[in-house]
Amino acid sequence: MVEPQGFQFAIDRGGTFTDVFARYPAGKVRVMKLLSEDPANYRDAPTEGIRRLLQEESGIPVPRNQPLDTSRIDWIRMGTTVATNALLERKGERMALVITKGFKDLLHIGNQTRPKIFDLEIVMPEVLYEEVIEVDERVVLQQDGCQLPKQAGLETVVGSTGERVEVWRAVNMEQLEGQLLGVLSRGIQSLA
Q: Could you give the C-alpha distances from 173 to 169, 170, 177, in angstroms and in order?
């Protein structure tokens, strides 16, 4: 195994405890367990675990509640059972779904994968969102061999993955803002 150049952290933040696995640059492995919530001692358990382990290994004081120097960190991988449990138990923030017009039922319909494909009494879980905002927009990925009719004069943008996208129908920002403010006025502050 190649020894890491910097610190490597894998963290699981649970409802009660946060587990921090660290591999130090020399290859030494250390595991630490912290309370996920301990406001008298720290604001954030994952950050506190990283802070303590950096300080322990380097011997250099790392002040609490200050930004960490990340120059010595190769990577941080983090998962959380808190979000998974919230989904399974249907607890958490009220939420609205923002989706392209015409697709509002997409998550409810799904892909029809189920254990008994011909069962006439299909039990489906409830959706996690309360409201749907359909946005009248359309973007199409630019691809060689695309069979869709070409449209002249379209704006082309580059996505975060480097792919080029044609804007066939731009978002009406004023209309969307009104829809979002309506959802907010009904007490929904989270979007999917």
A: 12, 9, 6
